Amino acid sequence: MRPKSPRLAVRAVIVEDGRLLLVNAWHTDKSDLMCAPGGGVEVGASLTANLAREVHEETGLTIEVGAPCLVNEYHDAPSQFHQVEVFFRCTVVPGTLRPEVWHDSEAVVTERRWLTAQEMAQVPHKPDSLGAVAFGNPGVSYDPLEPLMR
Strand locations in the chain, DSSP E? Predict the structure, then answer.
């Protein structure tokens, strides 16, 4: 039996006024885990186009996608789920409306929060290096395979 191929995903690192935008990772009470907005890529669209679409769906925000800043991969051994994520530094397009109420078209994201580095330290999130990348490391980072936390 052939093993499953890794899923490819893209995520946005959006920092404004010393705060990073995070969204809930699960749409149920499964976990209070937070992550950067984004998701799986669709075939035939660029990584950046996929990311702009995902962020708009999940937050209602229109973004400009910048340079990659992190490659992360994680797995859930029992389900054989393996995901490779490419994170990009992004900015919200000036003049973008910031709806207080929005609805993720796929009903996955139900919460979005802007957190400082200190606040992030108190909130379960993945990947582990996200805060360092968002608030410190200006280069490109790589997180090796880590288990998925629930």
Answer: 7-16, 19-24, 34-35, 38-40, 63-76, 81-92, 112-115, 141-147
